[in-house]
Write a structure and sequence with these properties.
By secondary structure, the chain is mainly α. Helix 1 packs parallel to helix 2 and helix 2 crosses helix 3. The longest helix is centred in the middle third of the chain and has 27 residues. The protein has a 3-stranded mixed beta sheet with strand order 1-3-2, covered by helices on one side.
């Protein structure tokens, strides 16, 4: 797990998640709640691996105790996927802000999306998260 920075390593250690790598997977990553294991597809770029790992850690963090609901309905599955994506974006944003020492109010969301090689479909989620963080920061 040499590609992980300290923050991600701390999340993995805190959640006691096992990380495995497999060739030939049909998806870039998968969380197995029964064994608290994340399986990642071999051969991804460092950035892709970080995004996929953070997404799967979102499942481990938010859905470990109720993962049986994942395949119950399309709505529940979609909700869990959206929560995992938001977790990934939040952790990338935390890393981005710490590395660039930027005030939250001055984050260029498109530059963040581009620097993390995120799909532009996340524009709304990034803007919403930045707005929520700014609102919460102002109320502290």
């Amino acid at each position: 797990m040499s590609l992980l920075d300290r923050r991600i390593r701390k999340i993995v250690d805190t959640l006691k998640v096992t990380i495995l790598y497999r060739a030939g997977m049909d998806k870039p990553g998968h969380y197995i709640a029964a064994t608290n294991t994340i399986v990642l597809k071999e051969g991804m770029s460092e950035m892709e691996e970080m995004r996929v790992l953070l997404h799967e850690l979102g499942h481990a963090c938010k859905h470990h105790n109720n993962y049986h609901l994942y395949n119950l309905t399309f709505t529940l599955r979609s909700k869990m996927e959206a929560e995992a994506e938001q977790y990934m974006i939040k952790k990338l944003l935390d890393k981005y802000m710490a590395a660039s020492d930027i005030d939250l109010r001055h984050v260029n969301y498109m530059k963040f999306i581009e620097s993390n090689d995120l799909n532009p479909k996340y524009e709304h989620a990034v803007k919403e998260l930045l707005n929520d963080l700014a609102t919460n920061q102002g109320s502290l």
